[in-house]
Protein 1
Amino acid sequence: MNKKGIFLPLFVISTLFILGLLFASITYEKNERQDKEIGQNALAILKSYDEGEKINLFFEQSVKYTEKKTISDLYSNAGYSSENSCEKIGEFIIFSQKCGEFNPQKYFQESLNKELEQYNYLSTYKEIENKKVFGSRLFTAVGLLPEVETSKNAELFKFVAEKNAKLKIENLENQGNEFIINFRPVELLIENPSGIGEIESTYTLTPKIKVENNILFLENFHRIISENCKDSIEECEAKLKIFYSNVNIQKENNLLKIIIPKGNYQLKAALDITKGFPNKLSFRAV
Amino acid sequence: MHKKGSWAYPLEFVTYVGLLTVILVIYGIIFFGFKVAEPDAPVISAKDYQDSTTLINFLRTPTEVNGNKMTIADSINLFYNSQLSEQEFKNLISNTLNSLPKPNEDSNYKLEIGKDVVFDKSNIFQAEKIVQGLYFPLSNKKIVLIKLSLKCNCNEEEVFEVA
C-alpha cells in the first residue's frame, strides 16, 4: 500500500466534511438570529395601527348606513323608536302621553346601537414572516437544528380584533348642529414577532364619528307643539303653518295628521290635543 | 493505491479531481447562489413596512355621483344596492385608480371587490407588488373583501416610493 497515495482521497473527503460543517454552522447561526432583526417590533406596532385604520373605516361606513335608517325611523315615529308604546292611526303614531317620555336622543342612541350590532368586523391581518434560511428545514428535519419559534400571535391578534371591534356607543356629545358619537374603545394586541415572552403591549383605538344633529329638529317640533297646540286644533294648525312652511296637514275629526319634510326625512305624527303631549326628559348617556 | 507510472494512476487521479470539482461546484452554488455565505442585514427590509394606506385613501377619495358628493366607498355600496349603473361605476373606479401614484407609466392597479367585480388592465408579465386588502361593510349588513394590488415590472425601491 502506497501511503502517499492516500493524500488525494483524504483531501477530497476532508473538503467535503469542512465545507459541510461550515454550511451547517452558518445555517445554525442564521437560524438562531432570524427573530432578532431590528425593526420587527416597530413593524408589529405599525401593523396594529394599520388594523386600527381598517376598523375606523369599517365603523365610519357602518355608522353612515345605520344613522340614516335610525333617523328615518325616528322621524316616521315623531321622535320615538319603531318599538314604541304609542297608539297608532294608520302609519301615524298619536303623539300623546301614552308614548312615554319624549327623549329622541336616547332613542337615537339605543336604536343606533341595535343596528350597529349587526355589523361584524372581519380582520385580514397576516403575521410577520421571518426570513427563510436556506437549508434550515433540512437540518431541522434531521434533528441538527432546533425548531425556530415563529409568531403564535397572529391568530390571537385576529381573534381579539374581531371580538373587540364591536361598535358600541359610549356617549353622544351634543355640539349644537352636530353630534360626536364616542364609541367604546377597541383594544388591539401588538404582535410579538419573536414569539418570546408574554404578550403585553396593546394599541387602543377610541373611535369618534361626527354626524349631523337631526335630533334638534325633533326637539324643536316637541317644543312648538307643546307651546302652540294646547287650546284648539285650529290655532295649532295655523301655528304649525307659520313655523313649517312645507307642512302637510290632514284634519280627521279631532285629530291632525301632519307630515313635515326635512331633507331626506319626513316627520310624521298625529296630534290629539285632548290627550295631552308627551313630557320631555333630558337624557345623559352613561 | 496506484503509484505514478502505474496504468491505473491517471484514472484514479481524474476521478478524485473530478469529485473535488463537483464538491466545490455544489458548495459554490449553495454559498454564493443561495447566498448562504452572505451575512443577513440586521435591519428589517423596507418593503416589509407596507401598510393599507393606498387602499384606505382610495376608498376615502371624494367623488360625485348624480350631483351628490360622496366617497368611493359610498359608491361601492350604491353599486351593490343597484343604485348606480355598472357603466357609471366602472368609469368612476377606473378614473380613480388611474389617479393613484404609480412607479412608472406601464404600472397598473388591480382592484377586486368581492369575487365578481375585478378592475385589471395589467398583462401576465407584470408582477404583483403591493397587495392590500380589507373587509368592507355594505348597507345590507353583508361584508365584502376589497383587494388592491399594484402590478408592474419595477424594482422594490420604485414600489417603496409609491407605497
Protein 2
Amino acid sequence: MTALLSLKEIRKSFGGLAALSGISFDVRPGEIVGVIGPNGAGKTTLFNVITSVFPPTSGEVVLDGAPIGGLPPHRITKLGITRTFQNIRLFSTMTVEENVLVGRHCRSRAGVWTGVLRTAGQRREEREIRSKAGELLELVGLSGADPDSTAGSLPYGHQRRLEIARALAAEPRLLLLDEPVAGMNEAETQEVFRLIKRVQSLGVTILLIEHDMSLVMKACDRLVVFNFGRKIAEGTPEEVRNDPQVIEAYLGAAEGGADA
Amino acid sequence: MEWLNPYHLQVASFVLINVILGVSIYITLSTGQLSLGNAGFMSIGAYTAALLSTQHHVPIPVGILAGSLLAGAAGILVGIPSLRLTGVYLAIATLGFGEVLRAVLINWESLTGGAVGVAAIPQMGRVILAWAGDRGFSPETLGLQGNQFIALAVFLILLLSTILSVAFFLRLSRSRVGRAYTAIRLDESAAAAAGIPITYYKVLAFSQGALLSGFAGALFAHATSFVSPGDFTYHRAVEILVFAVFGGSEHIFGPVFGAAFLTVMPEALRFVSDYRYILYGILLVLMMIFRPQGVIDPPLMRAIRRKRKGRTA
C-alpha cells in the first residue's frame, strides 16, 4: 500500500542544535502510528515541520505523493492534515461550539459579502457547519455541554477532547495528536483511547505522540522511536518493546554495557 | 419644535461619527492588531471628500465613497508591511504613519491648504436644504427653522450611515469571517492550524478598519464644512482607541457604547468647565482597575440575550 505521509531525510536545526537529524518513515492510510521517545527527542518538532509551523532545514514531507514542504500552515490543513497541541491551544473565550465552527473554516466558503447579506447559500452553509459541529461534539462526548460555556471554562480532560473535535472539523485524512492523554487519570485515558479508535474507524489516519506507554502499546499499529533527534527504532509495539536501543534510551545503558 | 435644538443635534452627530470610528478600531482590534493609524485614515477620507467637492465639484456621495475607498486602499498598503509587527510595535508604526500623513497635509500647501485646512466644504444639511428649496420646499412646512432643518438632516444621514455600518460589522462578526477574526486574535498559531489564512484576514481587517475610518472622516468633512490637520492629531488616534478600551473591544457594541458615552460625557459636564477632563481621566483609571476588559464584553452580551430570551419564553 502506498504511504499517505512520507517523511524523507527530515533535518531541522535551531542554530547549532540539531533537533531532527535525518528522519525518514512512512505512515500508511488507516494506521495509527505512535511516535515515542524521551523528552526533547524532537517529537513535537516533527509535528511542527509536518504542519509547516516552520520549514525543515532539509528533507521532504510528502502527502499522497505530492511534496507539501513550504506551504503555509492553513494550506496543509486544507490538504488534510490537522493537529492538536501538547499544551492545549483552544480559543478559550469562544464558546465550545464556536471552537469547532472555526475548525470548519477551510471546508466552508462564505466571504464578507455573503456573510453580511446572509444569502440563501450562506445560511445553508452555516446550518451545515453547525450540524457538523454538533456531530463532532457528540463524537468526542461533549454534546451535553452548555452551548454558552466558554472553552476555557471546561475541565481539562474535556478541553483535550474539544481540541480533537476542532481538528476533526476540517475533515483531515491524517490527524496528529500531541500527547492527548497527558495529565489524565486512568478513566479519562480509557475514554480517549476509545475515541482514538473510533476516529480511526471513521477512516482517519493517526500519528500519535504519547508518553503513556500502556495507551501507545494498545492503540498503535506501529511505533517510531526517537532519541536525540534520531529515529532509533521502528516496528510493531512488540518489536519495539524488545529493541535493545529502545530499552537503553528509556532505562539507560546497563552498567559496563556495550557502547551501542 | 422648540425642543429640536441644533446644538444637541450637533453633539448627537459627533456621537455618531465617533461611533463609526469606534467600530473602525474594533475591526482591526478584533484580529488582535492594535492600530493607532485610524486618525490618519480618517484624514485621508476627509481630505479626499473635501478636495473633490470644493475643487472638482464632485457630488457629495461620490466624494464620500471615493474617500472611503482611498482610505481602505491605504489600509492595504500600510497593513501588509505591518504584518510583521504586533502589539505596541504595530501601535508605534501606525502612529508614525498617522503623524507622517499629518506632516504631509501641513506641508503640501498647494493641494491641502496647509495648516489652515480646507474651508467652505459643502455641508450636507445646507446642500439638501438648497436642493429642496429650489423645488419650493420650506422647512417651515415641518414647523422647523432653517438651522434646525440643516442639523436634523445631517443627524439623520449620519444615523443611517451609523446604523448601516454597525449592522454590517455586527453581521460580519457573527459570520465565518468574524469567527476567523476572533480566532486570530485569541491564538494565531492555533487559527492557522485550524485552516485560517492569517495574512489574508489580518490585511482584510486592517483595510476594513481603514475604510471605515475614511468613511467617518468623509462624513465629518461634509458635516462640519471645515477640516484641518489639527482634526487628525495623535490626540484623535488615542481618543478612538479609548472608545474601544473603555467600552470593550471584544464585542462590537463595546466601542459603540464607549464612543457614545465618552462623547456625551464631556458635553454633559460642561458646567464644571475645565475640571471635566479630570473627571474623564479619573473615570478611565477606575475602569482600568475595576473592569479592564471594558464595559461591554461577550459574557455580558450573552447574559443580556439569555435574559431577553427568558422573558419571551
